[in-house]
Design brief:
- The chain is of the alpha+beta class and 446 residues long.
- The chain has 17 helices and 14 strands.
- The strands form four sheets. It has a five-stranded mixed beta sheet with strand order 1-4-5-13-14, with helices on both faces. It has a four-stranded antiparallel beta sheet with strand order 6-9-11-7. Strands 10-8-12 form a three-stranded antiparallel beta sheet.
- Helix 2 packs parallel to helix 4, helix 5 crosses helix 14 and helix 16 packs antiparallel against helix 17.
- It starts with a helix and ends in a 5-residue tail after the last strand.
Amino acid sequence: MFNPTELIRKKRDGGKPSREELEFLIKGYLDGTIPEYQMSAFLMAVFFRRMDFEETSVFTDVMLHSGVVVDLSSIPGIKVDKHSTGGVGDKVSIILAPMVAACGVPVPMISGRGLGHTGGTLDKLESIPGFRTNLSLEEYKRVIAEVGVVMIGQTKEIAPADKLMYALRDVTGTVESIPLISGSIMSKKLAEGIDALVLDIKTGRGAFMQKQEDAFELAQNLIAIGTNFGKTTIGFLTDMNQPLGLAAGNWLEIVECIDCLRGKHIPDLMEVTYVLGGAMVMLGGKSKTIQEGIEQCKEVIHNRKAFDKFVEMVKRHEGNIFYIMNPESYPQSKFNIEIKSNQTGYISGIDALEIGHTCIQLGAGRMKVDDVIDPNAGVIFKKKIGDKVNTGETLATMFTDVERVVQESANRVVNAFTFSETPVQSPTLIHALIDKDGVHEWKTAV
């Protein structure tokens, strides 16, 4: 029998827990013999003392085998998923999953809720009335077999240790840890029955990995873990110095996804979506190159097959299709506030981290584990980096039901914008392609 206090001290002092010690901690946390405050202390020790690659791999394996590993081998095709490390306005999965499935690649996707200042795919999907993210494993297998795409949350069987730890990290200041992020992502992804994985590793002000060197380290960690477990894994380093797309907030982002699936081109959002989708189509064996995969993805957007696949998926998840077809009929926020520019110039920055925290204040995210999310809350941007703006022109529109936060939130949004007197270029979105052989410059046009 191990002593949890001694294990916390061991990690705090820079020691390396054995597999047996990690199994003891994680099993004990699952069965309730190790309380939240001790697991929180251990997570904080990892946050400060880190884990080496061997330790991270063992940690991932223990979390993976805290539940079942799904077998999808009976379903034809190469099963490919995508994971983003999180950002503000990052709704790519909701467009990408049905788009790639419409290209003939099965997409089994297990997603998470909002974490820290970043939004969560599950929270966005659950803003669709009736949409069930809690399908059973049998339902999960049936939907992926029959529809070709499924988007669920963790079931009690899949990496249950991570499900508990994920929520705990969100409220204990231990989110931004490369070993903990690696273990969390890969335990879920390895459990869901995939053959290959495409990673979107965000870097910049609104990402967990604000520095590029940290993002590269995380990418290499994730790819090495995936490769060690026999899954073809590649990643893209993408920019998160401003919110992605024009919407931040759960239902607001769903509306943006509906627009894009119907053919609206929002340049930054669709560039990232097409590149990741093209890589998934290639790994799924439906194209020889990423560029060919991108062209296939564009085709299923333009001919509406991706939108039709999205509607089919929402139906199978018991979501109300009326609001997909008529998003303007969705209930509206009590407060709808236009944020005006207080100066003239070119937008040189939009602080994605500040926007993320403001969205939480508006009701779009959680401050505590049991907080209820307001699906309408958030911000829609009228201007992005590089745009010319005049004094009094609308920068964004803010939505909330909470009157007491209106003034402070409005101030935060307007102050998130910075300006230049001279023209500014839009930021480069795709910084690099990363695989098991290293880092490669990305040049492919979208």
